[in-house]
C-alpha cells in the first residue's frame, strides 16, 4: 500500500522525508517552538535532567533523529565531561543548521552522521 497523498509522493520514502526536512531546516526551530507553545525547550531540559549520569567520564552519547541539535547544549551542560555526541539524522540541512547556529564552539565534540 502506498502512502501517497495529493501528489506529494510516498511519505514513507526516505528521499521524500529527507527532502521535507532539508526544505524546512531553516525555519524548523521557530516552527517547533511556536507549535509547541514553547514546551519543546522545557521537555528537552527535563529529558536530559532525568538521564542517569554515565558510569565513567569521557562517555559517548548518541542523538538519534538529531535534527537541528537543540538537545546538544543541554547534554554538554549537564554532562560536561562527556567525550562526544554522535548525531544521526536523515537531513543534511538540519545538521548544517545545527552546526551553523548553535554548535560551532563545541563542534569538535559532535560527530555528525547522515543516513
Task: Summarize model confidence as the mean pLDDT.
Answer: 85
As a whole number of angstroms, the C-alpha radius of gyration is 16 Å
Structural class: alpha/beta
Which consecutive residue ranges, at least 5 long each, have pLDDT under 50? none
Give the tally of structural domains: 1
Q: What would you give as the CATH superfamily?
A: Vaccinia Virus protein VP39
Kindly state the percentage of residues in helix: 40-55%
> Got a strand count?
3
Question: How many alpha or pi helices?
Answer: 5
Report on the biggest sheet: 3 strands, parallel
Query: Could you name the CATH topology?
Result: Rossmann fold
Order of helices and strands: HHHEHEHE
Order of the strands making up the biggest sheet: 1-2-3
Task: Provide a descriptive summary of the structure in words.
- The protein has helices at residues 14-24, 28-35, 39-50, 72-78, 92-101, and strands spanning 60-64, 84-89, 110-114.
- By secondary structure, it is α/β, with parallel strands linked by helices.
- Strands 1-2-3 form a 3-stranded parallel sheet.
- It has a single domain (14-114), classed as 3-Layer(aba) Sandwich (Rossmann fold).
- 42% of the residues lie in helices and 14% in strands.
- The two termini are 24 Å apart.
- The relative contact order is 0.16.
- The model has no long low-confidence stretch (mean pLDDT 85).
- The chain is built from 5 helices and 3 strands.
- It is globular and about 50 Å long.
